[in-house]
């Protein structure tokens, strides 16, 4: 919740909007929140009639509930819903997102993985394993409700990592949205969803003292997941170092027990990703 609070603070500094946070693992806890309405899992699932969601837990449950949350808010009468993972922080106007949903049903942000077929081809192929779009952000207008409901049905079907089956959590399903539904906008603004995986395709620079992506795009929001933080701390993304330090201070201001290493601790998922990476090299060698 402390990460969510920092995200909400970054939104409230520029916009008067209704902020919602879905909590899936603390139904009995008293959650202190400022500037947001907390929704509980037991409020959401009975309405959805999606009993299959109950078989998920942890991260898989959170990911599976993204489209349910978005659909719930559209059902409540909102014309637009912007979903952000709670490890995102805004730095500039999100008008570019809001404006696109005036004329489109959905908005997606590409991963912008390195796509060079002559070098580091692991990243080129990652687009086909992990997905073309990053599910840390998702925008929907009321006209995209049927697409959101389709995504929810996909998540009820399966949320897991299975490269051989073409599955990657809730994310790979997004690849089909521009094919199955009309007015799906792919956000080409490279200042959106800046992260450690798009350093090469969204190069950072300073123009008149302002951070720019690919020489022209202002920074809109950074996705501070563990991979991004590790890249910055390793010196691979130096122009984001000061922003990471600021982010840590903001986290500490709302959680006095915050320890930065908590955000980069390796998990079993990280180990499994490393094994898959090594297996890719083995397969590549046989090719």
Q: Total helix count? A: 11
Give the overall shape. Answer: globular
**Any idea what the radius of gyration is?**
19 Å
CATH class: Alpha Beta
Largest sheet: 4 strands, mixed
**Spans of 5+ residues with little confidence (pLDDT < 50)?**
none
> How much β-strand is present in the residues?
15-25%
**Count of domain modules:** 1
Care to count the β-strands?
A: 13
Helix content: 25-40%
CATH topology: Spore Coat Polysaccharide Biosynthesis Protein SpsA, Chain A
- Overall mean pLDDT stands at 91
Class computed from helices, strands and strand pairing: alpha+beta
**End-to-end CA span:** 46 Å
The CATH architecture is Alpha-Beta Complex
Major beta sheet, strand line-up: 3-6-5-9
Q: How is the topology of this model organized?
A:
Elements: H1 2-12, E1 20-23, E2 37-40, H2 41-48, H3 58-64, H4 66-75, E3 80-84, E4 88-90, H5 95-103, E5 106-108, H6 121-130, E6 137-141, H7 145-157, E7 161-162, E8 167-168, H8 177-180, E9 184-186, E10 204-207, E11 210-213, E12 217-218, E13 221-223, H9 226-233, H10 241-254, H11 268-286
Parallel strand pairs: 1-2, 5-9
Antiparallel strand pairs: 3-6, 4-13, 5-6, 7-8, 10-11, 11-12
Helix pairs in contact: 1-10, 4-7
